[in-house]
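USER:
I would value a second opinion on how I read folds in token form. Give me a protein, with the fold worked out from its sequence. Write it directly below this note and I will take it from there.

ASSISTANT:
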Amino acid sequence: MLANPQSTRRRVLLAGGVLLGRAAGQPASALHVAGNQYPWGTYYRRENRDPARELDAALREAAAAGLNGFEPLARSAGDVRTLAPLLRKHQLEMRSLYVNSTLHDPAWADQSIAEVLGIAAEARVAGVRIVVTNPSPLGDAEAKTDEQLRFQARALGRLGAALRAQGLTLAYHNHAPELRHAAREFHHMMLATDPKVVRLCLDAHWIYRGSGNSSVALFDIVEMYAPRIAEVHLRQSRNGVWTETFGEGDIDYGALARRLAALRVRPHLVLEQAVEEGTPHTMTGLEAHRIGQAYVRKLFG
């Protein structure tokens, strides 16, 4: 019997998710947990520390907290060159990085794509396999037009194809604005792009918050796009406010972990627990990340 092409395609995509979840040669039981750069800034600023001047300290604390990797926000290839020796110093991997992009505006898209590709070329040498981008969400007072969304999807596809040619995976990321107006921006980026070149960074809490604090919306998106999930950003809240540590709260991450396992999706896991106005202040970022990474391993290990 001939294989169903859609079934074969789904198995290939799922296998890609499994491979992204662990390093080559590493046993399947070993769980790699990375931390994103953004949260360290939020913890440092509330302690009147300057995160821009304390990158080495943040990496030292990330390693001390038990994290295996670090996902930076890279604005240039120079940022990657600066970061790479510090990561080696603290024995942290950089399997992914986050870059900003502007893809909905024809006046900026080509330049933005070229900038991302330049950063990605440097990052690939440093071990990066996933490039995460959030294409410039607009503010609460406005939304992208249909034509801008169509153009953005085409540009996102171009970027994804160019990164794939470099051996890299593009993962689309969103914040809350893309979930407005029936989540038309989020869904169009998924439906109007090729799954082979545009994957998904599932930022669970931004989807939850952007959908009006809805777990239903979050888990529906998981069901719709599970084969495309290359990475998951992990953040928790309680009564809508970000918690100080990643643990139990508004989102049932245990259910999310079980569902991804049932679908045989093993994404790259990135702890992005951050603090905001109203978050309790009882510990340092190091202490919070040590607790958070242990909880990630408990759920996803």
